[in-house]
């Protein structure tokens, strides 16, 4: 059965899930081969009450329709088997499911002690059942105390657990139970993106989490157009019209029973005063429910002409009742979850669902001392129609869950793996540790110079070493090793603890492998070079490598004007033009590690040739090489020098001479600098229109000479919506070195890189 699973995933969490589902069918086939072609997955579904059955029934139907893949065992326990709660096991039989086992696990009393005793009784009875059924996997739903007993038994008996609706937040003891089941479960099916993120934050393996939506939505979203008038008449009377009645469903809050009973009493008073036909469902079996039933009887609800009090309504009929109600009131999760699918107004009372995600149809009454506040809420909500909400599903949860089940590899180890975030190393209280300065070795491979520095955690350059960058690979790698060994030895004398080595280099870099893939023409013999291995082997330290433009951006993120900003772009102006893009606090590398090659943005179709082989690039106009080329042209034509300026015969003409001439009034030099600044400005405009950063930082020796022209170009060429983006000159002296150091220093604070 192939059913599209794209829409909900793209809506809720685009990216990784889309790829996940593309590969899921392939994984399924591989797993079936591993498990044996004739081996069916034996699935045990255990249901404890009417609420969890509404979520589990669609999954059970899906499993039943694929007998070639699954064997289904149904275990019924909890309030399903109690007459006072409707003997709801009968609806399971009416749905044509064979119940393999019935377990009477509820200890009556409806107080805290009875709940604990019920968990204990279930734990006593479940091992025999599980030994007999021997399921491959048990499906457990939600956050009820019965479900905790199920999960505990299965986990201790080495049975894999699939938990439905983990990661959600409500606001009572249910949260603790739900998260406890999450820790016991091996696989997770969640309904919302937030729930998925909560599971990941709880250190659950992302590969074992499925964002599917709520299974009950598979029925909800195709139910509203069915015949409903006969259902309304059956439960509320022949004289009741759609949108002219109320459905009330309120449960005790086990962490504050007295207050929840008082709230229920006020709710009934408000409903009596509101004088609309109301269907009241009895509360669940939690501690406090007996007292709530006494309140109902004290107020004569069961005999009041405006009220219909019932223990249970079949789910398919319940859907129709809430879909066409004038309002739903209470503290049941169905009010904030399922009812939103129809846009029916909801009044959510108290704290039981305080953490749930809700649609705009929900009005919260957190607390009430009198019935007035609830009565006001009824007047505000009754009879409205809100937009339908799909926060909890799109109607395709079951096909996704079945695919997920088929992908489970029974040959994988049963032991769960938790994805804990890295934590700081424990450092013993030693005087040397207290006094030493945590530092990084930073290496900057430029077109001219090779620099190594000891950089402290605060971004202070403790000591710096500079040598000319050799022309050959052998000489260069030997010099890097020599300078790093000397710097590491010096660090000991300076009481600096070196945590690792960060390398900034020109060219295209694979930072994951620490390899320079392809260098610029400025650094010869520097393609396919593994920098990480020789340095790590020599210094016995971790090594990071990245492009110099990216390093400049990381320096700004940690030490400069980009600190704390979510999105910004750095342009580095020097011998060449480079840059880095920070998006959502993270550096963008691109699919082939070629992102942010900002110097090779084309700003003119017929511009000068660039070192990359193209023409019209920013680098062909605004780099130090381009300015030096223009300076030589002027000098050869005797148009460079002005009064107060000279170039010694043994000194090569450079970009600095062009800048000096412009400052002294050389009109041609000024024109060249203005053209260069305009080219850079056009590149900045392109970036503003592409990634819309909140800040652009110009870094490097030429930045201060370009800043005013760049701002002028933005005012003239950029869309009005981005003209207010700040463009500033970096105040960092050595961005490449500081960026290289930041890769190491971020690791020590366990920032993901």
From TrEMBL:
Domain UDP-N-acetylglucosamine 2-epimerase, first and last residues per copy: 68-406
InterPro entries hit by this protein: ATPase_NBD, ROK, UDP-GlcNAc_Epase, UDP_GlcNAc_Epimerase_2_dom
SUPFAM superfamilies: Actin-like ATPase domain (SSF53067), UDP-Glycosyltransferase/glycogen phosphorylase (SSF53756)
Pfam families registered for this protein in UniProt: Epimerase_2 (PF02350), ROK (PF00480)
NCBIfam families to which the protein is assigned, alphabetical: NeuC_NnaA
PANTHER family linked to this entry: BIFUNCTIONAL UDP-N-ACETYLGLUCOSAMINE 2-EPIMERASE_N-ACETYLMANNOSAMINE KINASE, ROK (REPRESSOR, ORF, KINASE) FAMILY
Protein name: UDP-N-acetylglucosamine 2-epimerase domain-containing protein
Lineage, top ranks: Eukaryota, Metazoa, Chordata, Craniata, Vertebrata
